[in-house]
Design brief:
Number of strands: 12
Strand order of the largest sheet: 5-4-9-10
Largest sheet: 4 strands, parallel
Strand content: 5-15%
Shape: flat
């Protein structure tokens, strides 16, 4: 049951939409106040009454029923206490019946969401800086699917630019086909680093010529480029498989080469283009932004040109409800410019484009530079996390079977969770010890909670939800947390914030562990034992569902 909806449907406020009442209902910080609360402060201006008076009048008008057992007005808040027996029966019963589909809905039915994420650069390292865009995008992909949306995952490959001329030039001077085939992306990266440290002016000119040959369709130059591309994709797809990330399209920058001119023609036809120091721009000064560069003085396109073409293509191809760009916050201005240009072109759907900005990830020893070769490969971070997870798990449980498989789930889960737990806009300093801790706000803690619940359930026989059982205070805290799962998913989807799901999982695990410590389960009797087993099963399932949305697996034992 959606308790917030049940409450909102029974409250009438003149001039206030029922949906606004629904979204205003919150969970009180102190459960003694109530299980749900409606702050009345935002209604004071419209109703021209104090929040205290509004809360009191709404309390008097509200009729309690079998669902809500008590309503009170305190300091401008309308507080609701639910019928504990009914809530527990409803929520736990639904979880036991729906299993891995608990929390799924048709909330997004009939709507398509495009998500542009990861966007790796061809022939460049897949380093730790790509972690956030990859796992945030991957989590949003799974979340929207779970909520009934049609989702299109797009890897907007960085496969256009002068660096590919440099790579071909470096390969021609120093490369060996067998060594490149054997070394793959690592060997290609070594060529790129060598070019940037050793190339002279003659080679720079040669590199520009190779890029021109790629653009003009030269057979040999394009064959070398496509070879580099295939080696890159083979490598990154192995990383994606480990992280549980998938894409429906790998249409990169080159894909839009023949799609830019119609956009440029439309900009010109709508008198939006200006010449500035030889370059072609859209002047955005009156909107508080620097100009959006469309063409360089030599006529070459830029990122903005290709992003404009990509936006048109995605709208025409997928007719999206929203198109999300999971890109670092350093590109804030770029996306503001692109979205504003599309709006000025008369596209009503420009409002449906969303830059999902995130902070940077670095290791404790600092940042990286691809050009100089100082880079931390994401593959190495994952492998090190898995190795350390093996040591941690072995120390915790030396006799554990399938330690290699378990370490894989624990280590990869720690990498993902480490990037998702904090609000996405925050910069992250990745610490192996911190993300692999069995205590605190980590995926390992949540996974261990699941293993603990599985251990209890493995010793039980039939699990039947008893009728009429009234939960204790500590049991009811778990019940309320379970009831909040659906709302958490919708909230996370509307704010593009997977951290809500990660934090929910930790919060539920903490509440369950408090219950586990304070309440006997297997040695309890009668309805008490049955209820606690049902609560344990429901918690395990909900934690698994939450972690699955984040892309994290759950070992049977730890």
């Amino acid at each position: 049951m959606d308790y917030k909806k049940h409450i909102a449907d029974r409250i009438k406020i003149d001039g206030i939409d029922n949906n606004e009442i629904y979204t205003s209902i919150v969970l009180p910080p102190n459960s003694e106040m109530g299980d749900f609360a409606l702050p009345c402060f935002k209604f004071a201006k419209i109703l021209r009454k104090s929040p205290n008076i509004i809360a009191e009048e709404l309390k008097n008008a509200y009729k309690t029923d079998g669902v809500i057992s008590e309503v009170s007005a305190v300091n401008g808040y309308l507080n609701f206490k639910v019928n504990k027996v009914e809530l527990a029966k409803s929520v736990i019963g639904e979880i036991l019946n729906t299993g891995k589909n608990f929390g799924a809905s048709d909330f997004g039915a009939g709507k398509t969401i495009c998500i542009d994420y990861s966007s790796v650069n061809i022939a460049k390292p897949f380093h730790i800086g790509h972690l956030s865009t990859t796992v945030i995008g991957g989590a949003l992909y799974k979340l929207y699917k779970f909520l009934g949306y049609k989702v299109v995952g797009i890897n907007h490959l960085g496969d256009y630019g002068t660096q590919f001329g440099k790579l071909i030039c470096a390969y021609k001077h120093w490369g060996n086909k067998e060594e490149i085939e054997k070394g793959g992306i690592h060997a290609i990266n070594e060529l790129y680093v060598r070019f940037n440290s050793e190339a002279d002016e003659k080679m720079e000119i040669e590199a520009r010529e190779y890029f021109r040959l790629i653009e003009s369709g030269d057979k040999e130059a394009n064959e070398i480029f496509e070879w580099f591309k295939s080696l890159t994709l083979k490598y990154v797809e192995g990383i994606y498989d480990k992280l549980g990330v998938k894409f429906d399209s790998y249409a990169g920058e080159r894909f839009y080469t023949d799609k830019m001119q119609p956009v440029i023609d439309e900009l010109r036809a709508k008198n939006l283009l200006k010449e500035s120091e030889g370059a072609t721009i859209v002047d955005l000064e009156e909107y508080g932004m620097s100009p959006c560069l469309i063409l360089r003085s030599d006529g070459a396109s830029l990122y903005a040109t290709r992003d404009l073409a990509a936006a048109y293509y995605r709208k025409n191809t997928y007719d999206f409800y929203k198109c999300l760009y999971v890109v670092a916050y350093q590109q804030n201005l770029h996306f503001k410019q692109v979205f504003k240009v599309l709006e000025l072109m008369g596209n009503e759907w420009a409002k449906d484009l969303v830059h999902v900005a995130y902070g940077m990830v670095s290791l404790e020893d600092g940042a990286m530079s691809t050009r100089k070769g100082k880079v931390v490969w994401l593959e190495d971070v994952i492998n090190k996390c898995v190795e350390k997870a093996y040591s941690v798990v072995t120390e915790k449980n030396p006799d554990l079977e399938n330690k290699t498989e378990i370490a894989e789930k624990v280590g990869i889960g720690a990498v993902i969770f480490g990037a998702l737990y904090n609000n996405k806009i925050k910069d992250i300093v990745f610490s192996y010890d911190k993300v692999l801790s069995f205590e605190g706000e980590t995926s390992v803690y949540v996974q261990y909670t699941c293993a603990r619940a599985k251990s209890v359930l493995s010793k039980a026989e039939n699990i039947l939800m008893p009728v009429g059982y009234e939960p204790s205070v500590v049991e009811f805290e778990v019940v309320k947390a379970l009831a909040a799962f659906k709302e958490t998913l919708i909230d996370a989807s509307e704010k593009y914030e997977p951290s809500y799901v990660a934090r929910y999982a930790v919060d539920l695990a903490q509440k369950f562990n408090k219950f586990y410590i304070e309440c006997k389960i297997l040695t309890a009797e009668g309805d008490t034992k049955q209820f606690r087993l049902a609560l344990t099963s429901a918690t395990l399932q909900t934690l698994k569902n939450a972690l699955a949305i984040l892309g994290i697996g759950v070992p049977d034992k730890m």
